[in-house]
Design a protein that fits this description.
This protein has a seven-stranded mixed β-sheet, with helices on both faces. With 447 residues, the chain is an alpha/beta fold. A hairpin with a 2-residue loop joins strand 6 and strand 7. The longest helix has 30 residues.
Length: 447
Amino acid sequence: MNNRKSLSRRTLLRGAGVAFALPLLDAMVPAGTAIAATAAAPSRLRRIGYIYTPMGFNPKEWMPAGDDLNELPFTLQPLENVKEQVAVVSGLELKNAYPGSHATSNSAFLSAATAKRTESSDYFLGTTVDQIAAKKIGQQTQLPSLELAMDLLNNAGQCDNGYACVYQNNLSWSSPTTPLPAEAHPRIVFESLFGEGGSTDDRRAALQRRASLLDSVTEEMKRFKKQLGAGDQNKVDDYFQSIREVERRIQRAEASVQDNPLPDLDRPVGVPTAYADHARLMFDLQLLAFQGDITRVVSFQLAREASTRTYPEIGVTEPHHPISHHGNNPDKLKKLAKINQFHVSLFAEFLEKMAATNEGNGSLLDHSLYLYGSGMGDPDAHDHTDLPILVAGGAAGNMRGGMHKQYDKGTPMANLHLTLLNKVGIEMDSFADSNGTSDELFEPVTL
């Protein structure tokens, strides 16, 4: 009988001002123990993430023709390699987001709640699903949840048709009166996951004191690896190499900005100039946070409502918001579909990396659930029905991927939120205006 002791899933490597969590290792599974009874059990590895994209979509280039994903439409073609772990969901509505606006599209996406119409600080919404998840499955991790965004400056005051900017700025709310600010600066996110915080000056000084956060744990890592088998040693090496690569990319971005002779007051040091490079960094940080079990709940605003961002890298030089008011103009609809596809392509790259990251008896994607979509359907009408929604992941292996689930128009988005919460172990009878569940997306669990 092998009586070797197993390592704790909460094992940390500590250095000067840093504490690194570790990925799930074979050494964390007690010898002779069934995987279902360990930290590798699918039920203990479930995570949930939410990705928001603004201003709706071009449905003609998004909606699959039938009930399967054998032939992906233009916008969804980047998902080809992971489509067996993706479901397209149509027919859902955010009834409480009306009257239609950009502010309520964003605020209702995770709350399915009606935003109090105000331009002042007496705003009121509802607790968002990510924060309900954080209160349940986020209490055993370093960070209960991680709130991310791509836009570095938040507007203040009134933003949209009588609604305070807080509704448009914040995707996550821990209570009806408590919006949670999202972080868009990769260096700050990186250090919240792996290193010391402090002011901007403190962080710059810290960069000068050390070439890499990993350097401070190098010796401890060498000693720690002697306890591990060859397979675990490779996992640790791969994980730390991924962390080091993310840090190098941040440092390169910092050097590039510092060398840039043009004034750039809106972009703090360390943020890549190219939108796609910035987004990839933010996705990679999510992957590392999940892999190290630093958090199990993430929300990510991939772009803001009413954004005037342009996308010259895909040939769209006009701002996103005016394009979204397409008036059925074929040229604008084509450009809207290209923006939609570009956003999906970044998500698809992330899913492929998750699928390629081994964990326990599957992959990181097998043990995660992601909801991707917008709180607006037709942006020209500012409506909130027939939303563009994707669900991706494994949910411990029982999600039905490769499908297009078409609900009757007007089916509450809250039904899907309720189902996803249940699938990550948060049993609730109802959420917001739900009137049922979306269990059809999942295989029945056999006991």
